[in-house]
Amino acid sequence: MIIRARTVVTMDGLAIEDGAVAIEGKRIVEVGRAADLLQGSTEEVLDLGEMVLLPGLINAHCHLDYSMMRHAIARPRSFTAWVQRINALKRCLDSDDYLAAIIRGFSELKRWGTTGVANIEAFPELMVQLGPSPIRTWWFYEMIDIRHRITTDDVVAGALSFFQHRANSLDSFGLSPHAPYTASVSLFQLANECATTFTMPLTTHVAESAEEFAMLHDASGPLYDFMKSLQRPMSDCGYETPFGQLWKNGAIHGGWLLAHMNELREEDFQIMEGLPRGSGPSIVHCPGSHFYFGHADFHYRRLHELGVNLCLGTDSLASTDTLSLFEEMRRLQGAEPWISGEQLLRTVTTNPARALGRRDVLGRIAPGAFADLIALPASGTVRDIHEEIVQFAAPVPWMMIDGQVIS
Fold first, then answer.
1. CA-CA-CA-CA torsion for 87, 93, 94, 98, nearest 10 degrees?
2. Which of 13, 190, 263, 378 could form a disulfide with 207 if both were Cys (CB 3.0 to 4.6 A apart)?
């Protein structure tokens, strides 16, 4: 098949006016001007007309389990209050509720042009009941060891499914020790060993809130008191920043995908400044969730200047109101108006592909890459096309995943 569009934004070079993409099976085999690809070709042609064709978007941090919780938790007085409230809500839900939430979340992701998602899965027992994922999905098995969790046969079967080949080529798996306040350094180190053995990506929440910082750095605050009441060992508190604790103990390394990183101090930046440029962990910023909690300003410019691989995610609908990465790009643009449209697009295409270890095959339109594509109406010039894409605010009208047109 050859797909022709008014503009092709490859994220792998200049945008191509009157461009085309040749696809064989699941892969892109050629990209260029439509006149060149169509000349003498006998392939089926899909002409998208006055549309811009671009790589499908990749959500680098999401919790599909909570897609039924939009507006369920009013803006909390504290991060700890939110944790307590969501835990109370979870006790009222069963497997059918979570399965329905995941399906609903997938539908909303597709509506807004997301063809890939890094999803944190808190209930591995659901995996045996889920069919093939409709979009490219990394299922990150959430790991917590602050207190004993009753293990059932269903839980074990679901957890094992993370380490078995799934029939759908769109499914991958990874590990996610939840956060330094809920997962021990030993659990992080075990995740590292497993990831090396099974070649899995790794992600975690870190430095998300001021209360997490106060707990780990100062041994104080409401999160400290709450975790202590759960009988979490607190001997690691009162010494390091959340990021510093994990990094200095070898719990994380440059291959990790770190969600949030909102509460950073000078010593954290010194660690990152001491690393070879581009070798540090990737960081996922979630602008909607960040606003909901009222966190301090995110250090986007400084992290960008350090060469950090910066990505965007939506987090869950328990702490934001949409799973649209277009909305997240606009929220980031509102906070950081100096960022170009092309740079914004990289946070949802090439950058998350790199973070997930798929930089050569996802997030770009190039020979050898998977045919994960979306198309939007376009009216501007090639020079303005990246900004026009960022401002797009309607459901995405056309999508292809793994070489298959799905809308």
1. -80
2. 263
